[in-house]
Amino acid sequence: MKKVLLLLSFFISLAAMGQKKGSPIRVSCIGNSITYGTGLQNPEKDSYPTQLQQMLGPGYEVGRFGKPGATLLRRAFRPYFDQVEYRQAMDFHGDIAVIHLGINDTDPRAWPNYRDEFVQDYSALIDSVRKSNPKCRILVARLTPLSSRHYRFLSGTRDWHREIQQVIEQIAERKQCELISFFEPLYHRPELFPDGIHPNKEGYGIMAQVVYSAITGDYGGLSLPPYYTDNMVLPRNRSFDIQGQANAGEKVSLRINGQRHNTKADSRGRWTVRVNPLPSGGPYTLAVSTQDKNISLENVMAGELWLCSGQSNMEFQLQQCSTGAEDIPNCQNANIRLLNLEALWRTDNVEWQTSALDSINRLLYYTNPGWQVCTPQTSPRFSAIGYYFARELQDSLQCPIGVINNAIGGSPAEAWIDRWTLEYEFPEILRDWTRNDFIQDWVRGRAERNMGQGHQPLQRHPYEPCYLYEASIRLLRDLPITGVIWYQGESNAHNKDAHERLFPLLVQSWRKTWNNSELPFYYVQLSSLNRPSWPWFRDSQRRLLSKIPHSGMAVSSDVGNPSDVHPTNKRPVGHRLAAWALHNDYGRTTLVPSGPLFRSAEFKGKEVWLSFDYADGMHSADGQPLRTFEIAEYLGEYHPAEAEVVGQQIRLTSKEVKHPRYVRYAWQPFTTANLVNGADLPASTFTSE
């Protein structure tokens, strides 16, 4: 890091020394059509080099040397070395050079044939720039994104683009150039690329800002990550990182609970401090400062931090809950902290205004209230399940609990997964998403309604694949969460097979985001409702338990409603999620985390013997005979079975089935199933098929 900063200072000094008194610093922008400004009505006015000139001002002279279609590879179809723009760039003798080449090398006529020559050809270009001005400061750019809409995305550009990115990073290191990136700030904004390759004016402006900050070191001064506010919760009893932004090379000081840490922002303005373990409790003051700015966060606690996410049943507010009127007056608890991120525009059956659609495209979809202490005034609009989960953890652990709610009503699982994961693992769901059968009809229809008649083809929506990850999860990644509770699936229940791919990808995506392969992930099985696909979906969720380590599932079928997708009794659901966390993550191993989970079926003549996990004390929840067990000899010909608890097993028989081969339980969309264990936790829907 020190070497990079020294080089940065050295090159800036050289550039200044190389100027005649009063002459501007020359910046040569070398590249292809993206440097030229293809796709713009007026490239001379709106290309990134031109916008960069406006940002830098009269002390700089920016030269635009972009050749549409140019390749870096000298033996490919249009080598930059052979173009007049190359000669013009060399004759310009730039004091600073920005090189952005490689997009066209993803062509099947280039990279597959000549990839082994890329390093030497790029190195030769850098050498040429240095020959034209030995004091030139060279910025090598990671490539702008290529959209999954590109017609060659799956046939090669996706993979070759990423291979070239890796090579460019190594070239920058090997040739002692500064590495900048056009990729990260644009990757989450696909609507800025009308043709999937070339940015629009706003996208070119973002590129100009990247170069401006790299040249000047101006990154806007000191800042902390989003959602670092007064009243927040940080981890207790473990080390963790706090990352932030400052101007390049600025000294940063951080203080908390007697700790003082000093660091320096790198050449891209990024800084990181490793905080030593904080004792549980507080309150603490978190103070961060540079020479020019001070930030002080008050009433910060050290405890456990959980994310509550999903769709409307997680979003469902405490004031809407059947027990809300009883519990809200007693919500005053300084050791529970709430971060309630609500949608600025709900996905109701309305057409959104143009201003809303523009904000949504900019990923500005959530309110930002900051952290709040849990009180009768702040809790009513918070997630009911999130509140009950936090209350139980706080009571059991006697430490501060922070809970973040970012659930969005109606949202499908694919909206919560990062783009990189879907591009590689499920790219077909990204294609023409408003007409894609992987995505539920209702989801697509509601999105089309919100976006309005004749909306722009690239208009974004919270239900779009990747959107909620990009608008929310990506911004939460700097909060060191302990785990996740999740209630979602209603908007994917039409296709359990797609969901069986999506849900593990979602968990994988978030664990990668928080750099924790064992991040606890506890989810709610869909409740009871008269929708025909739901038994299959509930059973699919049960089966996912064995595919996703460090997960748990709370059964909610006993608190459902036959006609309302939003059952109002949320307290038991919060309790069941908390039981998983307490059992798995906080050492409360005597606490039973789940109701009976089907393990196996043994068919003996006319009898079926069922074995379960968490089977101790199995009985009927209401004192009536066990209901909704069915057996069959042939698929599709199920008959009700008499069920009897025998020790830790259940024996099934039916006069109508002489040779049973299949069994299922709670196989009704709205079920009255009544099997529970000694902890009074309900059994899951299951089938042996």
CATH class of the domain at 2-216: Alpha Beta
Q: What do the pLDDT scores average to?
A: 96
Radius of gyration: 29 Å
Distance between the termini: 58 Å
Report helical residue fraction: 25-40%
Oligomeric state of this protein: single chain
Class based on secondary structure composition and strand pairing = alpha/beta
Protein described:
The protein has 689 residues and is α/β, with parallel strands linked by helices. Among the domains are: 2-216, SGNH hydrolase (Rossmann fold), CATH 3.40.50.1110; 597-687. Helix content is 30%, strand content 22%. Strands 6, 8, 9, 11, 12, 13, 14, 15, 16, 17 and 18 form an eleven-stranded mixed β-sheet that branches. Strands 2-1-3-4-5 form a five-stranded parallel β-sheet, sandwiched between helices. A four-stranded antiparallel β-sheet has the order 19-20-25-24, with no helix packed on it. The protein is globular.
List keywords for this structure.
single chain, 689 residues, alpha/beta, Rossmann fold, 30% helix, 22% strand
What is the structure about, briefly put?
With 689 residues, the protein is of the alpha/beta class. Among the domains are: 2-216, SGNH hydrolase (Rossmann fold); 597-687.
SSE order and pairing:
Elements: H1 2-17, E1 25-31, H2 33-36, H3 43-46, H4 48-56, E2 60-66, H5 84-92, E3 96-100, H6 111-114, H7 118-132, E4 137-142, H8 153-174, E5 178-181, H9 184-187, H10 201-216, E6 233-235, E7 240-245, E8 251-256, E9 259-264, E10 270-275, E11 281-289, E12 294-310, H11 312-315, H12 324-327, E13 333-340, H13 354-361, E14 372-374, H14 384-397, E15 401-405, H15 419-425, H16 441-451, H17 467-476, E16 483-487, H18 496-513, E17 521-524, H19 534-544, E18 551-554, H20 571-585, E19 597-604, E20 607-613, E21 619-620, E22 629-632, E23 639-640, E24 642-646, E25 649-653, E26 662-665, E27 675-676, E28 686-687
Parallel strand pairs: 1-2, 1-3, 3-4, 4-5, 6-12, 12-15, 12-16, 13-15, 16-17, 17-18
Antiparallel strand pairs: 7-10, 8-9, 8-11, 11-12, 13-14, 19-20, 20-25, 21-27, 22-23, 22-26, 24-25, 26-28
